[in-house]
Amino acid sequence: MTQDPQHQVLKVLQHAPTSAALQRARNNAMNLRRDAPEVDIHIVVNAEAVAAALDQAHAEADAFTWACPNTLARLNKESRAPLRVLDRAAILELVRLQQDGWIYIRS
Asked: Would the CA dihedral through 87, 98, 72, 80 be positive or negative?
């Protein structure tokens, strides 16, 4: 039996590798949450966006923002709550999430 596409929860994966991309991802996530609160959102940050996410908190978006462990290690920084750290490199996680049906958006 196949699922009715209209009843599937949308899974949106926003990729932000720069501080400007992080700002766009946060704005888009807030707009999406407002219009479709049931949507599952992940913002995956790597490269310079990791430092931006650590330095500039966002009260709502940080709860579904995931940082690349490789970038954290390169920066010699630790994450802060409620930001989360991916289990593996951002590139691998981006590929696996898309394979699992997440809709990829480069912010």
From this structure: negative
